[in-house]
Design brief:
Elements lengths: L13 H13 L6 H14 L7 H13 L24 H14 L11 H19 L5 H24 L8 H8 L7 H9 L3 H13 L1 H12 L5 H28 L1 H5 L2 H14 L5
């Protein structure tokens, strides 16, 4: 049952506070405060946690959304490199990513603008991320979009950390996910994380992804810059059905037994969507 009462409730853990602030920032232009508060309450309870009251959630959402934007959210340009300590040898990579975002961005899943904060994180992560994404069966421009995807995970974490007045963002889970294995988005790292979630939390995440299946098919077409074939649509649907049926272990088995899924990098795509959905609260 959704708790609508106001007043002092139980102490909010750092993890739940991080979730609330992250979702408030993510949906700042999409969902009204009250609607987001109700959805967050439902999700937090599915996670097995005691949810703050609706009034408390609305107040926290307002505080997160009303923060003055940092100068780091300004669009990046070459002239900003020296001032913001961005190495000049990263300029060619940043120019390419800036162009790709302008061409492919939709302001939802991929912003059209490369910000100073994103440029900082791309520069910090490039030399550790590049060997991983170099091995992907992708065109060069798609590898750069994966680099942008990784950097944005750190961007989101830093923005939330600053709103929580932390000394620095704790990125241990991101470091482990992306860089502790020689394989990009290694399923063997993801499976123990998935198994640690409560069943109700897993279902909330799967439901959120299922609600976006059509959008993901459309995004995949944009990613490949062509219509998907019937075989590819069947293969992508198979990935979703495997995830619903038995979680990541069943998904891994399906991908390993389906050459088309392996050729199209579905392990990385589905794993990335799953992780981002979970980190954003399992709701969009």
């Amino acid at each position: 049952m959704i708790n609508k009462k106001s007043g002092r409730g139980p102490k909010i853990s750092n993890g739940i506070r991080q979730l609330i602030i992250s979702q408030a920032i993510h949906d700042s232009k999409i969902m009204p405060r009250r609607a987001l508060a109700v959805r967050l309450q439902e999700l937090i309870e599915r996670m097995g946690e005691v949810s703050p009251t609706e009034d408390t959630l609305m107040r926290m959402i307002s505080e997160a959304r009303n923060k003055q934007p940092s100068e780091l959210e300004k669009p990046w340009c070459i002239g900003a490199c020296t001032y913001y300590n961005i190495p000049h040898d990263m300029i060619p990579v940043l120019i390419k990513i800036q162009k790709l975002k302008a061409e492919n961005g939709d302001d939802e899943d991929l912003s059209r603008v490369l910000t100073v904060r994103e440029a900082q994180w791309i520069a910090r992560l490039y030399h550790v991320a590049e060997p991983l994404i170099r091995g992907l069966p992708e065109p060069d421009e798609n590898r750069l979009l994966w680099l942008d995807f990784i950097a944005n995970s750190y961007v989101k974490r830093e923005r939330v950390s600053q709103q929580m007045n932390e000394s620095y963002p704790n990125t241990y889970d991101l470091d482990k996910l992306y860089f502790y294995s020689e394989k990009f988005l290694d399923m063997e790292i993801m499976i123990p994380w998935w198994d640690s979630l409560m069943p109700s939390h897993k279902q909330a995440i799967i439901k959120a992804i299922e609600n976006e299946r059509a959008d993901i098919l459309e995004s995949t077409e944009q990613y490949y810059k062509r219509p998907l074939t019937p075989e590819e649509i069947k293969m992508i649907d198979g990935c979703f059905e495997s995830l619903k049926k038995g979680g990541l272990v069943t998904l891994r088995e399906f991908i390993n037994q389906t050459p088309l899924a392996k050729e199209n990098g579905m392990k990385e795509i589905i794993t990335a969507v799953l992780w981002e959905t979970a980190r954003s609260g399992g709701i969009k």
